[in-house]
Amino acid sequence: MMKPILALAVAALLSTTATAHDAGEKDAKVTLVYEHELPNAPGKSMKSVLVEYGPGGFSSAHTHPSSAFIYATVLEGAIRSQVNDGPVKVYKAGESFSEMPGDRHGVSENASTTKPAKLLAVFVVDSSEKELTFPIKK
Q1: The whole model's pTM is what?
Q2: What is the enclosing helix (H) or strand (E) of 103?
């Protein structure tokens, strides 16, 4: 059962619109929407980000902090994703995937060139981590 505050946050996320992407931007918009230290796991926090992709939008290849376990749920549209050297998969609204500590996210993009897409990524990460995404330098 969702706590009332979490239910309100999820409802707010579902009702937002991709404003920057309507102008044709291709980079994903990432917004920190939740942060809370875990009382039963000292030194760990739960942090959530809303990732909004405009039509044809994407995130460059990246990694996350080595302490991060990530659970992502597609809220709207469809997301094309590849973790490490695994297959490229398409996740539709309502579907989820995980990333383990140390994983490399090589493909993260909107599967559509005509409709927006959104995902909510929930991190369990060391509380000291301020940056959640690091670009992979080619």
Answers
A1: 0.80
A2: none
Give the burial string for 29-53 (b: 16+ CB within 10 Å, else e): beeebbeeeeeeeeebbbbbbbbbb
Burial annotation 104-117 (CB, 10 A radius, 16+ → b, else e) = ebbebbbbbeeebb
Handedness of CA 1, 131, 58, 26 (dihedral sign): positive
Indicate the burial class of 5 (C-beta count within 10 angstroms; 0-12, 13-18, 19 or more): exposed
Q: Which helix (H) or strand (E) holds 25?
A: none
Cβ–Cβ under 8 Å, residues 13 and 33: yes
From first to last of the 138 residues of the chain, give the pLDDT tens digit: 445 444 444 444 444 443 433 444 588 999 999 999 999 999 999 999 999 999 999 999 999 999 999 999 999 999 999 999 999 999 999 999 999 999 999 999 999 999 999 999 999 999 999 999 999 886
Phi, psi of 14 (to 5 degrees): -65, -25
Residue 123 in contact with residue 46, Cβ under 8 Å?
A: yes
